[in-house]
Amino acid sequence: MTSSRSFAGRGKRNAGCARRGALRIAFCLLTPVSCLLFASGCRQDMHNQPKYRPLRPSPLFADGSSARPMIEGTVARGTLREDEAFFTGKVGGATVKELPFTIEAADLDRGEERFNIFCTPCHDKTGSGRGMVAQRGYRQPPSYHIDRLKQADSGYMFDVITNGFGAMPDYKAQIDPRDRWLIVAYVRALQLSQTGTAADIPGGDPEAANKQRQPAGGGKH
Q: What's the chain's average pLDDT?
């Protein structure tokens, strides 16, 4: 009786082991099949497209280069510069005398900010040409307050900022065109500040302004 029970138990265990073994075999066979099916659904058409990497040669064109020149007249987006005066400070090769747009108070504030950042190291904050860089040995720039620069066209100043002049490097890469014009406007304000009179104040009272300039006691010491 005991022997028959033990044989029955062994038979059940063997059957269970056989089922588990079959499941393992089935799993091992199905896993790579499933992977193959999954991979076949992933298409690389956009990734593996026929293309040339930059500057690689190509036998397709006569010059052997895969990089093709731009079509004549092509203009990069955002670089169509139809306003010659605004972008060059010139019209027909001659410098413009005035700024190409109206200047507001906020524009002068912006011009002062840009001037202080890019110009004061050489020109100082008054435009007299005694900036710290000049004091340390760099070639001293002329004062903005000499007659030649006070009478210079605004387009001339814009062109100098854009392309440089003498020891001064160009700033077209650092300062965009509008900000260059705002710097010119601020330089004009600096020039007026050194030569202006009380009568130049719009809506002001020249007599009151002159009285404020006089020291206490009528100017006597």
A: 81
